[in-house]
Amino acid sequence: MSRLWDKGLPLDQRVLSYTAGEDHKLDKRLVAYDVKASIAHAEMLCEADLLSKKDCKKIVNGLEQLLIDFTNKKWAINIEDEDVHTALENNLIQLIGDVGERIHLGRSRNDQVLVALRLYMLDAIDKVLSSIDKLCQAMGLLKEQQGEISLPGTTHMQHAMPSSVTLWCEGFIEAFKDAAEGLQNAKRRSNKNPLGSAAGYGTPGLPIDRSITTAKLNFTETQVPVTAAQLSRGKAEAHILFELALVMQDLGRLASDLLLYYTQEYSFIDLATEITTGSSIMPQKRNPDVLELVRATTATVHSCLNECLMITAKLPSGFQRDLQKIKAPLFRAIDISIESIEIMAHVIESVKFLPENIDMDEGLFAAEEAYKLVLDEGISFREAYRKISKNYTK
Amino acid sequence: MSRLWDKGLPLDQRVLSYTAGEDHKLDKRLVAYDVKASIAHAEMLCEADLLSKKDCKKIVNGLEQLLIDFTNKKWAINIEDEDVHTALENNLIQLIGDVGERIHLGRSRNDQVLVALRLYMLDAIDKVLSSIDKLCQAMGLLKEQQGEISLPGTTHMQHAMPSSVTLWCEGFIEAFKDAAEGLQNAKRRSNKNPLGSAAGYGTPGLPIDRSITTAKLNFTETQVPVTAAQLSRGKAEAHILFELALVMQDLGRLASDLLLYYTQEYSFIDLATEITTGSSIMPQKRNPDVLELVRATTATVHSCLNECLMITAKLPSGFQRDLQKIKAPLFRAIDISIESIEIMAHVIESVKFLPENIDMDEGLFAAEEAYKLVLDEGISFREAYRKISKNYTK
Amino acid sequence: MSRLWDKGLPLDQRVLSYTAGEDHKLDKRLVAYDVKASIAHAEMLCEADLLSKKDCKKIVNGLEQLLIDFTNKKWAINIEDEDVHTALENNLIQLIGDVGERIHLGRSRNDQVLVALRLYMLDAIDKVLSSIDKLCQAMGLLKEQQGEISLPGTTHMQHAMPSSVTLWCEGFIEAFKDAAEGLQNAKRRSNKNPLGSAAGYGTPGLPIDRSITTAKLNFTETQVPVTAAQLSRGKAEAHILFELALVMQDLGRLASDLLLYYTQEYSFIDLATEITTGSSIMPQKRNPDVLELVRATTATVHSCLNECLMITAKLPSGFQRDLQKIKAPLFRAIDISIESIEIMAHVIESVKFLPENIDMDEGLFAAEEAYKLVLDEGISFREAYRKISKNYTK
Amino acid sequence: MSRLWDKGLPLDQRVLSYTAGEDHKLDKRLVAYDVKASIAHAEMLCEADLLSKKDCKKIVNGLEQLLIDFTNKKWAINIEDEDVHTALENNLIQLIGDVGERIHLGRSRNDQVLVALRLYMLDAIDKVLSSIDKLCQAMGLLKEQQGEISLPGTTHMQHAMPSSVTLWCEGFIEAFKDAAEGLQNAKRRSNKNPLGSAAGYGTPGLPIDRSITTAKLNFTETQVPVTAAQLSRGKAEAHILFELALVMQDLGRLASDLLLYYTQEYSFIDLATEITTGSSIMPQKRNPDVLELVRATTATVHSCLNECLMITAKLPSGFQRDLQKIKAPLFRAIDISIESIEIMAHVIESVKFLPENIDMDEGLFAAEEAYKLVLDEGISFREAYRKISKNYTK
Fold first, then answer.
1. d(CA A217, CA C310)
2. Among A8, B87, C121, C295, which has the minimal tally of Cβ within 10 Å of its Cβ?
3. Interface subset of D 115-134, CB within 8 angstroms of C
4. What is the ipTM of this complex?
5. Do B293 and D339 touch (CB under 8 A)?
6. Is there a catalytic annotation at residue C279?
7. What sign for the dihedral angle of Cα C92, C98, C103, C104?
């Protein structure tokens, strides 16, 4: 099977292997989006009289068939194809004959990969949002069922003021809802149609109409000018990765709280046996591995953001092959974030607070006492503070 | 001058020096915001009948005076004060007497620093937006004046298709406008009023009304529940830092293009003499240091984002002193970003393209030729591509 | 097949899937090292009279057989095994019967994974060193064959002083040799025997002799005390990753130079056709993708270092499951670094400098001229500098 | 006062301010090293007959005087000087007249800054080593005085096996000694003499002898070839930063342990009052701020490493002004690391373990029991494990 740009010249196998990298594996998830965008592109060509209706129909049918066939494992992306785009075109030509060669008019792999990635990211955000929703529900349920249990509110990890399971849950729920809003806003950068920017300099002399694919693919806007498309690659990606990094930070902090509460010294909570694992040499132990792994995953997602930003840093404008490398950290972060959010919802469902072990000592109420003094005696808070503090000599 | 929490206990000087860190220097820029938020807080206490009108007036006048005095260097934040909040309260008491002690009712330094930072960030974003605007204007002017000059559009740093100064400018202008929109959206996380969350667990027994300060300070919403406030610290900061990192990436890429164009081999541009610097041992040289430093600054701002995210990572919920450390990278990144954007506007004003040195070789028009073949002969792009490619044997 | 710590309790499938993660795939490369360390451990138990000679022989033979069988794909690490350690023990018991249960005395998976990783890293460093050697040879050959070709030496990307292919090659060769020395030194942290630290607190009451495995496995030292072993996890890893990051920086800078030299404007070099790739819409192009991907890979390896450091950050001492997450970035960075170094050696072999395109302008010799003036006229360099600089008015 | 490269051309004030950046402040700490290297350079010029003995003496005396004067604040580095190198030369000429102009023969600011930084780094490492030594002593003392107190050894933050203050201290002491060895090894990259590489391409036609300055400045080797010097900038820096990042990781983990032990729920330790701070609204509290700030500082130092690596990434070879930006994160990390290590030694001196609060539950001894069963009954560990585990049903 030939590569799109094959001109009969020899290509060193090791170079191919290095340059194609993992694309033939990673690109699996892009097949549906490349098909979708290719159909929109073909129909646009047809509307612009650059493709006959008959040919367009053949191409569209062929692409739809290829998507079904891919799902049914009738074809795959091979390393010789390099990427999904070449694989799809090659398979199309094989399936419907020479007419398939007419699809690659007025586009380049540069805008093809951009559009497929953006369509994918819009979907991926929705998947993350749906897992955040599950987590919020789990926390909501926890609050409903055990919310009245008291907790020492801490600052500096020291008992500070009275808190409760309700307040604890609500803080995290606000955080996750904020994250959801952040992710929703992050769609903005994926919502720009790059199709028609081709290699990054448009299609001089070819009367294409980019607004048609914008409408067909439900993008919010067409990304003009053509030079903006490649310059923006990595930004929609970085934006999602940033928002995922924030979600993972909250998950990590939730895990830190639970790990603390689950220590023998705290014993504030119990976790379902099936959530914990055993030890290979200490028969008495039940370990909260899942929480530790969530905590560690904050590092993974943050590193994916870093990799993305570092890949585009300092590059001259115009497409650079470097950009291909963004896919791996993007996909890795999205997958592990969704898994982590969902496993956390799972864990939260099994958390049982143990009020009998939670000591609400007197000191927690010192600020409240001072407030009472202020209200009762009309003195300033500072004076009340000095009076109350005499009672405490930690 | 005493620290807010001073109970007459000894405090080790080295510990004070380590814990106060640079706060007494960094916090200068927060004075105006702490004054503003303190006034809103005092007025709220008054409306809630927790402070008499007379006392409120004294406090408000005192705070206003202190802001003027600070500008006039009549007082400063000393290391013994630790931070702006203690310094302000101490100075207030010194200025207006014991009534000043009444201001610290129903708030804590934890929500005080949050609110001051958010008010600061909202202003800081506006300052960044204004410098982006200057840069867009400079690029717009460049486009207007030299836009018609041809440039080789490149992919893989290789001549690809015809471009122009217009297209080049427009790509970056879109990028900067996108960055501006991103920064505008980043205000969302600063637009939540944390005042009244106090140490992070509210003010039990004290009938304060948080919506009053929300209105007075023009926040979009009150951040409820109280536990959400401290959990969210670092997020508004990270969001700005992320958007600044994206702006700096574009600046860095713009610098990379210009550095390339300025090499003797390209000689696509000239830069004003006053923009360049000389060499200490090579008399013939003019160096584009400013562009190199902009390029390097992408690393600085990205690292500030990293520092911010790493500081909050894995912390148990509730206020932790770690959070203090976010201020330094936040301020550093904001300052250097504004400086970099503005110096770049300055540089762009002085860029002179040299069309006589820009070679638009035939190969740049190969895709266009292929398109023409498609239109003229009705063949597929693939066939046209094969025909045209025979003319090229690089 | 049972997990080591299985006590008949239910384990939620999703938790297993999340906690085992990719370990069953990643751990493939650790099989040989786990076998090697297990054999040393069994022999130590035997020497300490904790295992009979007969049983020891059975275990050692069994382990050796399992390594052969693994290579022949007769068994694999399944997700139910969680990791290589459990898989190996399970397979051993299956192969040689109950006597296999005697291997897990005086060790834990915590020191088992540590020792396997360290043995692996010592080997991996040697593999990296061998690819660096290839690269140095390629650059040495280039220097030998084309070294006399002149190059403009640049500072600030501006012509500065005369250089040559020799000087250019030698700079990078020094860099790669320095990297090799750095990697060699990085072995130090892998060269500490953790075996016998068990879960991190030793094996109270069990008369094992840790120095025996140290000798058998050729470690430089036994890591005492037992608590040091887990606290040090991630450091040998981070050290290698840091040194790889430095190598990749040099590779990236080498790629940047070559990408510059390969532009049409420079045309300082040609690359073999089989090293470059074509374009899908621009028939005239040959693209240096491989160099761009090497440049991008600096971001990948640096991010792996970041991930490693962020995973261990702030963890309480003692083993934490978080540490498992270090394997993925470690392996990823080692693999891609070796591939990148080797592909670069490949590229360097095909670089052809084109002296006819390299313009050594007069300005390059200005400093030399100034030196001459100093020597001839006995004036200070500053004075000579001022005289010479009059000749240049860029 | 004139800049070294001044040719009478106008220089835009804003460009100067942006390009000089903070150098005039940062470079203060380099004065002594620039003086030292300049003296060695002058003496080398004299030995090579490029400077008369009389002139050399004047220059050397002048430089020595300038160092004393700088310490006495008789001169300072101004922004107009840009950096220490220009300031020093300008002041030398002012002090000893035109003969001062003879110092800048056969060197450039490029190798001047390299050599000054390396001499500085060699000293800085010694300072870090000395603070690590203090910390090890403090931990050694703690071990000596309270070592016999039992501690629950944990894995997964769960009670695992018996440990002790001794084991806990020893683990960290090993870590800090390993860090010290790492830092000692990091000197290697600072121990290469760059002097004489000048701008990066040597001093053609000028008979200098680089081995002389190598000997005079006690470098281990001369860095040949000349092109290697600039290519290596940032590596010695990154190496120190990496090792500091590792030290800070250990400090952060030590802080995490202590923060845990200091919670009300653990109450394993008490801290001296003068180590802790109070709260502005909760009169009962004593907060371990210093430990939280140490924990947060891991992020700062890691970010400095990141910034350093990102600055040099992808740069073409040859000096680039970007490299100037490495100084700020380098100095920041060194200063804060030393402060953090020393404050930690201070904290450790005040830690008092409270054995009465430390519960060594039965489960901690389960593994030991199993070992006993193995020894007593000759059964396998696996069988013993199964027997013992029946006693535990957490």
1. 40
2. A8
3. none
4. 0.95
5. no
6. yes
7. positive
